[in-house]
Design a protein that fits this description.
single chain; alpha+beta; six-stranded mixed sheet; two-stranded antiparallel sheet; 18 helices
Length: about 600
């Protein structure tokens, strides 16, 4: 307002917590200095970390990338803009090893191209070739690299990896290395580069790679360039790799500390040790209800299943804060911030007295009761782990939420099955059905259990605990007609006599296998037998029996392109793993097609 003009928002200019938290897009980070600092919310999840960026300085990077006349210059300008928004520590790159580094991020840049030609900033320029938390030093470093592009045809990385390792000097900070290139890295996978990579991994450095392409179409060398770059990345390598157009680089950098993004999930993680998660995060970076609601600045939306800022933090006046009873606000006189009142902040002796709370023994904390959803969609998508009982229209907490194999197997009602995979840490710990010794209790679970030989046993197919292994058993199918979903015996397999089997037009008795099977139209070679089945039709032109749904199909070739990204491993409706559900649906479809 003093200059009477519109300028970019700069959270760092806000000097007190309440105005910072009130401003959308800003976050008060308590890890800075004695009192904290206001930072961009995009980077509020950044741990204390040092980041080194290796930039490809080969001739190919001089060419146009999209609307940028030079890919190399575009990368440098993206890095410059990124540095201006990062929560930098403020420390010089020349800081003595004995001096404690402040909170936030430090950044360094190294250029690589021809063998033996890796370049860091000169000793008298900017950071002096170190990681730095001062914007002025970073800008000088980038000016230096812009003016001294190596400009050779081949890219070699071993020397740059060695220079980068020398820049990671602080054991108490997370260490991140990002390789940005459009080239086939010639020495990736060779002895010198492998030794440098092993040394980086041994020092706890996470190595990520971004393969740039000049246009939307992939160049002919893209496959070889990808394979080469993967050789220098951390495991799991595919999760540390992205290929992108130049304009995507800004988003990749801006979401580096966002745990909902591919790189951010691996950087802003809850790992112990150096650079672990800070005690407070921007609210959108909490993905579990109880974790969200334990932060007095946040609230969980039961309808959207996301964590967002509490309405209370918008009040920077004590009287206004105390007057907001609808949002259960209270004034923190010490921090001078308006927070929502704590939810279920009780010791074990008082927890049960609050009807909305329960004691969680695994973590020894009083929490809100989980899975209080009124609709199946909200219940099944709740990340804390809920199951929907379709017979009672009721949402229940998922049993067996242990995240460690040993703890899971110690519970007699649970078992650890590594074949069951998904996005949640507890997904491999599954309920062991039919363990009761009481016949009445056994038969209450009549979908899964039966009482035989004076003990409770699982019905056929129930032993398969996930959709993939279930559908790979010819006798079984994943039953989504009710919830919770289970693996159950196929319809025709339940008919144990030839007479019952043949009375049902959907089934046919197999004398060779001595069991009842589903009819497959294409297996019926006789026109009369085909037409007896209402779901089959005889094609006179090809003289074959087809499923009636596909009777009108012409001669054609069909290609199916499906999404194999990490998000497909989450639950989709009553299917616990979206990718497996898609594959098994295709498998069932193929069986009915007139191939």
């Amino acid at each position: 307002a003093t200059n009477n003009k519109c300028v970019d928002k700069d959270c760092s200019k806000i000097t007190t917590p309440c105005p910072c938290n009130k401003d959308l897009g800003c976050f008060w980070d308590t890890t800075f200095g004695a009192n904290g600092a206001c930072v961009s919310g995009s980077f509020g999840g950044c741990p204390l970390m040092d980041v080194v960026v290796l930039v490809d300085g080969t001739t190919s990077m001089k060419s146009a990338f999209g609307r940028h006349g030079s890919g190399y210059q575009a990368v440098m300008e993206f890095l410059r803009d990124w540095a201006k928004t990062l929560p930098l520590s403020g420390d010089t790159g020349k800081i003595a090893a004995s001096v404690k580094v402040g909170g936030g991020v430090r950044l360094g840049v190294v250029q690589f191209a021809a063998q033996g030609r890796a370049t860091k900033t000169g000793p008298t320029v900017g950071s002096g070739g170190h990681v730095t938390g001062m914007l002025s030093e970073l800008e000088a470093d980038l000016d230096y690299q812009e003016a001294k592009m190596i400009d050779t045809s081949d890219a070699y990385i071993a020397g740059a990896l060695q220079l980068a390792q020398a820049m990671f000097t602080r054991p108490d900070r997370k260490k991140v290395l990002i390789v940005i290139s459009d080239s086939i890295i010639m020495d990736a996978g060779r002895a010198e580069a492998n030794a440098a990579v092993s040394s980086l991994f041994g020092a706890g450095v996470k190595v990520f790679g971004v393969l740039l392409r000049p246009a939307a179409a992939f160049p002919s060398t893209a496959g070889d360039a990808r394979d080469a770059m993967l050789n220098v990345l951390s495991n799991v390598r595919d999760e540390h790799f992205l290929d992108a157009q130049i304009e995507d680089l800004k988003t990749i950098l801006d979401t580096l500390c966002d745990p909902s993004q591919q790189f951010g999930r691996l950087i802003a993680s809850a790992e112990g040790g150096a650079g672990a998660l800070k005690p407070k995060q921007p609210c959108p970076m909490y993905f579990e209800k109880n974790v969200c609601n334990k932060d007095a600045a946040c609230r969980w939306s039961a309808s959207l299943l996301v964590c967002s800022d509490s309405a209370c933090v918008r009040h920077c006046d004590e009287d206004v804060c105390k007057a907001d009873s609808s949002n259960l606000c209270e004034w923190d006189a010490t921090e001078k911030i308006c927070y929502k009142k704590p939810i279920c902040d009780h010791p074990i002796s008082e927890c049960a007295a609050d009807p909305g709370c329960e004691w969680k023994a695994t973590s020894s904390v009083c929490v809100e009761k989980e899975c209080q959803h009124q609709a199946e969609s909200g219940c099944l998508s709740d990340p804390v782990g809920c199951i929907w009982d379709s017979q009672k229209d009721h949402c229940l907490p998922r049993p067996c939420t242990y995240t460690v194999k040993e703890a899971c197997n110690l519970d007699p009602t649970c078992t650890w099955d590594a074949a069951v995979v998904g996005t949640q840490a507890w997904v491999s710990c599954v309920e062991e059905p039919c363990t009761t010794t009481n016949p009445t209790e056994c038969l209450k679970d009549n979908r899964r259990c039966q009482w035989e030989a004076n003990k409770c046993t699982t019905k056929p197919c129930v032993q398969h605990l996930d959709e993939k292994t279930c559908d790979h058993d010819e006798a079984c199918h994943w039953d989504v007609s009710e919830s919770p979903t289970i693996c159950s015996e196929k319809y025709c397999r339940k008919m144990k006599s030839e007479g019952l089997c043949n009375d049902d037009t959907k089934c046919a008795w197999s004398s060779s296998d001595n069991l009842c099977k589903e009819v497959v139209c294409s297996d019926l070679a006789d026109q009369c037998a085909c037409n007896e089945r209402e779901f089959c039709t005889w094609d006179k032109q090809s003289t074959v029996c087809k499923n009636v749904d596909f009777g009108g199909c012409p001669s054609m070739d069909v290609a199916v392109v499906f999404d194999g990204s990490g998000s497909m491993s989450q639950s989709f409706g009553r299917h616990p793993h979206g990718f497996y559900a898609m594959i098994e649906s295709l498998r069932d479809w193929f069986k009915t097609l007139p191939l």
